[in-house]
C-alpha cells in the first residue's frame, strides 16, 4: 500500500471513522431527519399493542408510512420498547452502514486489485455528510442502501461468474432487492432492475438480442422475487386495504402529482426541479462536494478510456438519476443508494485527482471548525445563562478542536498529505460538531431526577414543532403522559399557565417566566431553539449567541384542571 494513502493512514482513518459513527450515537442533536420521530412513535405504539402487525399510530394519516421492516427492527433492538433509548434504536443503522462500507471495500479491492483503493472507497463513502446524517439515526435509509447495493457489489466482486449465473445470483439479488423494498418502498424495484438491466446489456457488449435471450428472464425473476418479498406485507397485515390506501396510493403514487403549477413546469423550475435534484445529489458528499465534482469532470475527460467497472458504476448512478427525476417530488435523498458508487469512483481516480477539490474541502472544514471554536469560546466565557447553569467544556473537547484545526492546517500546507488529511478532516469535523453540543447532553439540558419523579403518570403539555416531537420529550420525561401545543406559543407563559395544568414553557436565559401566584416551577433545563428571526440571526452574528440560540425551559404546575382539556387537539399528532 503505497502512494498518498499508506497502510498506517488507512488504519488510523478506520479507527477515526468507527469512533465518529459511535460517538454521540444517543445524542438528541445528532444530524438526522425529522422522520425519526414518527418512526419512533410507530415502533412504540406497535410494541405496546403486542403484535408485529398491523402497525399502530396515534398520528392522523401516518401509520403505514413505510413497510414494516424498519419498525420490526426497532421493536427487536429495544426489546419491545422495554429498553427505550436512542442508542438502542440507532445501533442497527450503524451496523447496516458499517456492513455497506465493508462490502464496498471488498468489491473495490477485488476489481481494482488494490487494498488501498478498497479502503479509500469505504472511507470516502463514510466521510460523506449524507452517509453520516442518514446512516446513524433510526431511519429507513441504512437498510435500503445496504440491500440495494449488495447485488451490485456482488457483480463487481465476482464478475463473470455472477453475470453468467443462471439461477443462484438472480435468486439472491431478488431477495436482497425484496428486503430493500420491505425497508423503504416497492418503487425502488424500478431503478434497481433498470440498473441491473444496463449491467447485463453492457456485459453482452450492448447486444439487445443477446441480452433479451440470455438475461431478460433473470430480470423478470429478480423483479418477481423482490415484489413477492414486499407483497408479504399485504399477506401478513390483517388490514391490507389500509396498506394499499395509505402507502401505495398516498405515500408513493402521490409523489407524481404536480407540486405547484403543472408537472412539466415543476420539472424545470422551482424547489423540486431536475436542477435541484442534481445539486442535492452532488452535495450529498458534504464537505467533499468539490472532490466529487472534480472526479466527475475527470471521468468525462477520460470517458473513452474508462474501465469496465467505472462504466458500470456510472450506469448505476445514471439509472437511479433518470428514474428519480420522474416523480414530481425530487430529492437527493432518493439517490443515497448510489453514493457508494460515487465514493468508488473517487477512490479509483484518487491519485490522479487535482488538489483543488481537496483544498476546498479543507477550507470548508477549517471554516466549520472556526465557527464551532468561536461559538464554544463565546458560550463558555459568557455570563448570560443566569440560573440555567454553566456552559462548560471538558479539556477533551478543546484537545479535539486543536487536533482538528492542526490536521486541517497541515493538509493545506503539505501537498503530500493534502488528500489524506482532507479525508480524515471530515470525520474530525463531525466529532467536533457532536462535542460542541455536549453540555446540552448532560445535566444542563435535562430535567433532574426529582422533577421526573414528580410528573410520573401525569399529563404534561410540551411545545411541538414537528409530528411526534413528543417522542424526544419522552426521553427527557420518561413516564409522563405527553401532549403537544404549538411551539411558536412556547414563550407565552402567561397564556400557557392559564390553559394547561402541567406545562413546559420557554423563557430567555437569565429571566423567569411570568406565572400566576399559585403556579409552581417543578424544574428547568436549557434548550436550543430551532427557528430565529432575521434580527435574532444578526444579533447572534454580532456575538449575542446564547441570548437567542438558547432558552430556559421551565416545567410548571398550575391550578388548571385536566378535565378542561378533553377536546384540545394534540398538535404532535
UniProtKB/TrEMBL annotation:
Pfam families: PMT (PF02366)
GO cellular component: plasma membrane
Regions crossing the membrane: 7-25, 89-108, 115-132, 144-160, 167-182, 188-204, 216-236, 274-293, 305-326, 332-350, 357-377, 397-413, 420-440
Single Gene Ontology BP annotation: lipopolysaccharide biosynthetic process
Database matches in InterPro entries: ArnT-like_N, LipidA_mod_glycosyltrf_83
Keywords, ordered alphabetically: Cell membrane, Glycosyltransferase, Membrane, Transferase, Transmembrane, Transmembrane helix
Start and end residues of each ArnT-like N-terminal domain: 29-234
Record localization: Cell membrane
Bilayer disposition of the protein: Multi-pass membrane protein
Alphabetized PANTHER family for the sequence: MANNOSYLTRANSFERASE YKCB-RELATED, MEMBRANE PROTEIN
Protein name in the entry: Glycosyl transferase
Species this chain originates from: Polynucleobacter wuianus
Lineage: Bacteria, Pseudomonadati, Pseudomonadota, Betaproteobacteria, Burkholderiales
